[in-house]
Amino acid sequence: MTNDRYFQFPLFLLRDLTTDKNKALNNIIKYGLYSFGEKINQDLNEVIRQLMYCYYRDTNVLPNDLIKLIDRYVDKDEDYNGFNGSEFNPEYETEQLIEIFKTDVNFQAKAIEFYKIRQAYSFMGITGNFENCLSVGKQIQDTIPKGEPMPMINKNQLFEFRDEDKTEIELMQFAVNIAIRSIIGEKAYSKTNKPMILCRAFGYSSIKLIPEAMPELFYKYSKRYHIDKIILKLELGNWNLIFYGNNMRGMYIGFENKITLDKLAETAEMKKDKTKIENLKAAKKAAQEKALIKIKKQ
Hints:
Blueprint: E1 6-8, H1 21-38, H2 44-57, H3 64-73, E2 83-84, E3 87-88, H4 91-103, H5 105-124, H6 130-141, E4 152-154, H7 155-163, H8 168-184, E5 189-192, H9 194-201, H10 216-221, H11 224-236, E6 241-244, E7 251-255, H12 261-297
Antiparallel strand pairs: 1-4, 2-3, 5-7, 6-7
Helix pairs in contact: 1-5, 1-6, 1-7, 2-4, 2-5, 4-5, 5-6, 8-9, 8-11
């Protein structure tokens, strides 16, 4: 069983990667935490228990607006810390807040929101500013276009690229790796082409969305030599990716742990032959129609 953790994020967050690496990767982390937290189920008693624990023992992690709401409704006893022996169980506050939540739904929503983001941080095994993460995560969520690709990236790899100095080649491998994963999705393999891979690597879901002005690296890696170099490094490295393209338009890309290179090549060649047969049939049909029209005129 693996203990790997993954962050999911909208592809457009990659647009800043080559110009402001820290901004791009920090936004991916914040959105990934926010998105993961949104999927967590909650028990209201546990929400209140954790809320009050932080209120009594770790106030700094609470968002300011949530502290103000607790101050409004709860009479804080400086001599009381919610513990009964070694167990933290604020029974009085729980009963009180359950009733308050029935009338102040905004308070309840903020308490649940805090609980979820705190659980997300705990699951990922990281620390940070909950309030800022919630704010940035919401802002990103509200700007995600319909149908935006939502790739995933391994936590360890994400933090490695954020916290360590990386060369241009390494950063492009990282971006192209994510681009390819966004194309394959949940499948074992997919057919694509280099312009689409590069488009995704710079944070655009389709070529038609690319603006006129792009970072200099985009134009550099638009050249065959440079993009081929990145693909070769991904193929030789530990990226779990395989590629096949032999005398065909585009290429087939796949996950090494889901499909073998032999099977990928076989699939590609079979589909290539199928396309040739379909094109031949279409050409013959067109020739037949022309002949019939000519005969009819005669």
